[in-house]
Amino acid sequence: MDQDHHWYFIGLFDVLGFEEKFSRLGLSCMAELYNALISDVDAVNAHATELKNLLDIDDGATWTDEGDAFIFNRVDGAYASDSIVLWGHAHFPEARGLSPEQRESRASDPSDGWMYHLVPCDRFLEACSELLCHSLEVGLPLRGSVALGPAIIEPERRVFLGKPLIEAARAEKAQLIVGAAFAPSFADQVIPERFSVPFKEHIKTGSEALLSEYLLDWPRHWRRTRSKDLRSTVSELNKNAKFAAYYENTLSFIGACEGRAPQQDAPSNWSIRSTYPQFSSPEVKLRARAVRGPVQPTAQTNEGTKELGRGNEVIGHALSEPDVFKAIGLAVVASQLFEATFVCAAHVILRQSNIASIEELVAVPTKAFKQPVTSILRELAKVAPLDPSMQSRIEALVEIRNTVVHKLLLDHPNDAGDTILGLCTKVTTESNAISLSILAALTAWLQKHPQYEAEMKGGVEAIEKLSAVIQAQRRAAFS
Is residue 184 within a helix (H) or strand (E), and if so which, with residue range? Predict the structure, then answer.
């Protein structure tokens, strides 16, 4: 029976126009793009592990020092072919395995009843939003749906079964848009207003029953985490008339989201206790921890400076946490390895691609390693342009890498562990993914000249050693 199985939040996403892109770009290019996309799933898993180790708790709720509730629930992901699935437990550990009647009878307790309600969906929807944003950056936009219900999730055996997966798959195919719809099962719960936007233009004719009237407001996440214009990013991907309607609907949806931005920033819309009734009782009992509450960024209004809540998206651990410093260090090392491999590749593969013999090879000058990556990209654009998708990935990495390495305390002076861990995990994961792609290209370039095997031996060994360092550093980040 369904009551014997755990309930999950399920997000199912497919790459829009995957077959057409595969035919046009070929296996190698698609593999590179797809590796960039799925790195976000790896980052989700790594981030969840980092947070669990940092807090030393399973899914649950704790107090912040401002008297609000902080919710931790792990979000995981997996991928196969052109599909990506994210999931998270929809019940706290105390409620798993209970019948609906048992949960309902215990949920009325004003102190502990929250344990038997659904887990607040904030963290899950933030993970879905980040995945959608990243998909646009790498040029593989996603169409998806989120659902809720009992399922069997056994990632070690690659087993994913249950009604919410079926519902999400049907709902995903019923849309003409880049984004994620709320399936009816998911919409039947408390969803903070900042995540939910009413929209119908994207629903295929005859498919209305498969979807609710709401879409995930992922453009809000883009505005908070990216500086590049979202409309231009979407428009640049609209290259195939077959999918023009998808992008036109997406632009229309972005407009609808922008019109709602002021009301989404209300502090009450970010508070767990204000949003979820089960946490509002003065008698509610939560675990006491040294957790700092949400940072309140400011915005100018006619009345002067107004506090705008950022809510449950950050953990209130100070920057001095050893695990946070470890994440920063790993991000710095990964970004430096990326820069070293990129400089070598730019100098050798791209600038000297037509040499006939090893004697013609000009060594990489020391000063080249001091040149900013963005400067090298501008030079390459004139003589040997990169693939646009790879250039976009590198530009996005450089932007967030500069924040972590140079501006962390300026841009995030009061931010807590979760925000910083998220930034660092993204830098580490993407730096490693791009570095390994570059190392593979360097190795392939060197092997074009087998007659100079002895001369190349040192270079190949250096590349293999660097690759081993990156792999070891990558494992450390995920441990």
Answer: helix 184-187
Residue 284 maps to a domain: no
Please tell me the distance from the alpha carbon of residue 120 to that of residue 190, in angstroms, as a whole number: 8
Reading phi first (left if > 0) and then psi (alpha if -120 to 50, else beta), residue 439 is in alpha
pTM, two decimal places: 0.66
Residues 339 and 225 in one domain: no
Q: CB neighbours (10 Å) of residue 430?
A: 28
Mean pLDDT per 10-residue interval, the chain, length 479 residues: 77 89 78 73 65 66 79 84 90 91 93 94 92 90 96 90 95 95 94 92 92 94 87 91 93 90 63 89 76 40 30 36 72 84 76 62 70 80 72 83 72 55 78 77 67 59 64 54
Q: Structural domain of residue 49, as residue ranges?
A: 2-275
Specify if 127 maps to a domain: yes
Whether residues 218 and 364 fall in one domain: no
Instruction: Report yes or no: 414 and 295 within 8 Å, Cβ to Cβ.
Output: yes
- The residue from 260, 275, 290 where one domain ends is 275
Q: How far apart are CA 463 and CA 461, in angstroms?
A: 5
Residues 239, 217: contact at Cβ < 8 Å? no
Gap between the Cα atoms of 355 and 353, Å rounded: 6
